[in-house]
Amino acid sequence: MKLSSWLKAAAGLSCMALAGIGMTSCREAYTPKPRAYIRITVPEKAYRDFDSAAYPFTFRIPVYARFEPVPVDDQYPNSQWADIRIPELNAKIYLSYIPNPNIDSCLVGTLLFIQRHMSKATGVDEWEIHQPEERKFGYLYHIKGKDVASPYQFYLTDSNRHFVRGAFYINSVPNNDSLAPVIDFIKTDIDTLIQSWKWD
């Protein structure tokens, strides 16, 4: 082998070796990043009384929420519907009020609404509401699970003339791990609504 051929081959091998070293020496060891969620800021807690001649009940509503009547479907002419909107958190509580209800039918309807979320649920906690002195009976349901669209639902009745059902939703793709601050925050508002609820 001639010297010039040997030098060319050695130079080629040296260039390839240097390129290989250069490509691999600058790499840092891969470290997976921890999962993070955006920081959610919630408003300061404060409440006001909701009292309207159009509705046979009163309760405490957050000052950062709006009570908005919703047109009723012709199928339910005696019902009254409303949303409690919390625009800052893109959330709402749907309310359905039924006067002079068939209690059994209303309870079946409530359980059917809860059943719709069970395919995504990991469990359900329930708390009984039993306040005879206030003529207030019902249940609060916590539907647990990362992908549940409505984590809290409830109903209240006086067992005779009034029935109201509530369902809490956040207007986003369900991921209750990242939405936990909002869910916990609004759970306090739901508790306040239930505790302060009075029939006229």
UniProtKB/TrEMBL annotation:
Pfam families: GldD_lipo. Keywords: Lipoprotein, Signal. Residues 1-19 form the signal peptide. This is Gliding motility lipoprotein GldD. It comes from Candidatus Pullibacteroides excrementavium.
